[in-house]
Amino acid sequence: LTDRLSQSIKKIRGQANLTEDNIKDILRDIRVALLEADVALPVVKSFIDDVKQRALGREVLTSVKPAQMMVKVVQEELERVLGKETSGINFNAQPPVVILMAGLQGAGKTTTSGKLAKYLTERQQKKVMMVSADVYRPAAIEQLQTVGEQVGVSVHPSSVIDNPVTIGKSAVDAAKKGFFDVLIVDTAGRLAVDESMMQEIKALQDSLNPTETLFVVDAMTGQDAANTAKAFADVLDLTGVVLTKVDGDARGGAALSVKTITGKPIKFQGVGEKMDALEPFHPDRIASSILGMGDVLSLVEEAERKIDKKKAEKFAKKVQKGNKFTLEDFQEQLLQMQNMGGMSSMLDKLPGMGQLPDAVKDQASDKHTNRMLAVINSMTVKEKRYPQLIKGSRKRRIANGSGTSIQDVSKLLKQYNQMQKMMRKFKGKGMMKMMQKLGG
Ligand code: GDP
Ligand code: MG
């Protein structure tokens, strides 16, 4: 997937604007990427249309390549669709705040009830009660009981001979009397969407009037998640989604489908079987995993924020005119790189860089950059402008002054010479490219 994308990215490298023509290939690849991530087809279509609209005519910053710009557009659109803020449980209601858990059997409703109870108790100091309205399987009621004991939360008793609405109402009464802040109502699910299950949970929603109705959905069900979401959203007034088993799903497609179809925020994600494996939803992470892009976006953002645009332009002009590239310029480059978190952090953020040979990583290590800067700092202005002056005794003085060795000074001069050669080759083509070359 990432390979495919990087190939079409290569094709638009070096172009200054995003046009219908130069983004065609990358759009096709994004489409394939989304389908591979198991995003539902109608969702893929509308997503691609939106990205296209957003990308066309967009100006490309001097400090980034068009390909990175395109990645950024995609990432922004993903985050826009998935929702930026993580919104927790709504407590803007008369206690007890009732949370109704809806979803298919096996989606993780009971487990999530326990996790959420623990989360709200520990992180938000709420007094939480739970109740099981799953009257079809005695084992389900016991399961919630066990979960309640595990997380130290009271579970209102329920019996298989009662009806779910009666159980729900009696739990609300008990929660009121006991001054509970929250009542979590676990419900029965079926293996597939089924009319009587829908009627039953609808009746529960109508009679309990919950503040939150959370649709619990298994991330690993991929495309099916879209159909299930539609069935539940058609019948119930959902207030949010909990995406479970995110730990077992590297693709992330379900998140995009479910969010697009329900239009409701994904509030939490389940990341394991244990009771503490619940987190606020992170749209940015899912967005990255959908496209397998590593952290390209944050790299682009950092480049925007930290590279001084004017300086970079001035520098590019200077190079274009064929002016000399001095050690002062080299120093400037190193400083900018350091501002961006150092070469190694830049490399870490690019997909596929994990496989770089250690020797290359060493070259790019921040320690190495710092040492080079120390050496340059110990030079006089004249030496920086006319590096050819730096010979034997000057080298020794600089090494002593910077706490490095003569070899370090020689190494720096060698790197500077290489850089100078490269500058001639890449005359005026922008500094990102040079920085990359410098890294390996
Ligand atoms: P319910 O039928 O909707 O109540 O589903 P359960 O809560 O009984 O969960 C079904 C299975 O999924 C159980 O084995 C849970 O341990 C497992 N499960 C639930 N949430 C997660 C999760 O976030 N990650 C993983 N790995 N397993 C989960
Ligand atoms: Mg259950």
From TrEMBL:
InterPro entries per UniProt: AAA+_ATPase, P-loop_NTPase, Signal_recog_part_SRP54_M_sf, Signal_recog_particl_SRP54_hlx, Signal_recog_particle_SRP54_M, SRP, SRP54, SRP54_GTPase_dom
One GO cellular component this record assigns the protein to is:
signal recognition particle
* Pfam families referenced in this protein's UniProt entry, alphabetically: SRP54, SRP54_N, SRP_SPB
Task: Give residue ranges for domain SRP54-type proteins GTP-binding.
Answer: 96-292
Q: Which GO terms describe its molecular function?
A: 7S RNA binding; GTP binding; GTPase activity
Cell location: Cytoplasm
Q: Which residues form the Signal recognition particle SRP54 helical bundle domain?
A: 1-82
Q: Which reaction does it catalyse?
A: GTP + H2O = GDP + phosphate + H(+)
Q: Report domain AAA+ ATPase positions.
A: 95-243
CDD domains noted in UniProt? SRP_G (cd18539)
Q: Which residues form a coiled coil?
A: 293-320
Write out the residues that bind GTP. 103-110, 186-190, 244-247
Q: What is its main location?
A: cytoplasm
Q: What is its EC number?
A: 3.6.5.4
Key words of the record: Coiled coil, Cytoplasm, GTP-binding, Hydrolase, Nucleotide-binding, Ribonucleoprotein, RNA-binding, Signal recognition particle
**For this UniProt entry, which segments traverse the membrane?**
none
Q: Subunit details for this protein?
A: Part of the signal recognition particle protein translocation system, which is composed of SRP and FtsY. SRP is a ribonucleoprotein composed of Ffh and a 4.5S RNA molecule.
Please give the record's comment on domains: Composed of three domains: the N-terminal N domain, which is responsible for interactions with the ribosome, the central G domain, which binds GTP, and the C-terminal M domain, which binds the RNA and the signal sequence of the RNC.
Query: Which family does the similarity line name?
Result: Belongs to the GTP-binding SRP family. SRP54 subfamily.
What does this protein's UniProt record list under function? Answer: Involved in targeting and insertion of nascent membrane proteins into the cytoplasmic membrane. Binds to the hydrophobic signal sequence of the ribosome-nascent chain (RNC) as it emerges from the ribosomes. The SRP-RNC complex is then targeted to the cytoplasmic membrane where it interacts with the SRP receptor FtsY. Interaction with FtsY leads to the transfer of the RNC complex to the Sec translocase for insertion into the membrane, the hydrolysis of GTP by both Ffh and FtsY, and the dissociation of the SRP-FtsY complex into the individual components.
Q: What is this protein called?
A: Signal recognition particle protein
